[in-house]
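ingest -> validate -> predict -> emit
validate: passed (alphabet ok, no gaps, 108 aa)
predict: started
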Amino acid sequence: LVMLIYGVMPRAGYILVRTPAELLSLLFNLYFIAIIAQAILSWVIQPGQYHPAQTLLYSLTEPVLRPIRQLVPLIGGIDLSPLVALILLQVLKMLVMQPLNHIAPPLF
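emit:
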């Protein structure tokens, strides 16, 4: 895509740094969307009711949300762990992606 957009073939070092950075960014975005979707489905689907999407989202997000649920108590019966997870994911994305985005351009 870089060659099509800029008309130049990037160096191997650029590709070796940029590809994992883009994959990490995609993973962060996937978790972000999955957590939001799970929160919305939890409002719509009644407890005890089966839905395949809820099962998939639960298996994706539970490894991230379980430790947060142990630290953040329920407030008025509302689970705030998805909100905390979203904030932590964004902070982690900023901390990881910024250095990778600064390393890659000089290698182009």
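The chain has a mean pLDDT of 84.
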